[in-house]
Structures are given as C-alpha cells and as structure tokens.
Amino acid sequence: MKKHTAGPWIVDESHEVDHQHLVWAEDVIIAEVCEDQHNQGEANARLIAAAPDLLEACKETLSVLEDWDDLNQPDDGPEWLFVTAMKAAIDKACA
User: Fold this and answer.
1) Given the DSSP bridges, would you call strands 20-25 and 10-17 parallel, antiparallel or unpaired?
2) Out of 11, 20, 46, 61, which residue is the most buried by the measure of CB atoms under 10 Å away?
C-alpha cells in the first residue's frame, strides 16, 4: 500500500494566485486547483484537503460495519452494500 503525505491538509487562501487554490501539508504542495467556469475550484480544493480525514473515517466505519456484520447479519444483508462501497473507496484511495 502506498503512503500519502501525512495530514492535516489545508487550503491556503493566502497563496491564491491566478485563480488557483493551493492545498498544503506541512511545506509540501499537495495540489494546485484552478477555478473553472463554474467557480468550483475552492470547493474542489477543500474536498482534496479533506481526503486524509475522509479516508480515516472510511477505515473506521468499515471496521465497525464489518464487526457488526459478523455478529448480527449474513453477508447478503443491506449493510453489506455499505461494506462493499467502503472497501471500494478505500482501495481506490490506496491503490
């Protein structure tokens, strides 16, 4: 599994240049996000900055769902859809 740059990641508006939003972690630029025609650059930068927190939340939620599923439901229960989706999201982030 590849390691990502440790968080926290932040959107730094003080360095906004030419409609670009920078996402930083320590002294590393994680992403430079340009504004698009719909002015979604800042929102996209904030989503990128939240990625490490979202990944950890997914991992913790998956752990709880898997424990709950093992104890209470068969593998074809409706919560299994959440387990499958959470595993796919984590795999996508960690590929």
Assistant:
1) antiparallel
2) 11
Q: What is the pLDDT of residues 18-55, one digit of tens each?
A: 678 899 998 899 999 988 788 898 899 999 999 999 99
Distances (CA, A) of 24 to 49, 61, 63: 8, 26, 29
Contact of 13 with 21, CB cutoff 8 Å: yes
Alpha-carbon distance of 16 to 62, in angstroms, equals 36
Distance CA 76, CA 12 (A): 44
**Spans of all domains in the chain:** 1-49, 51-95
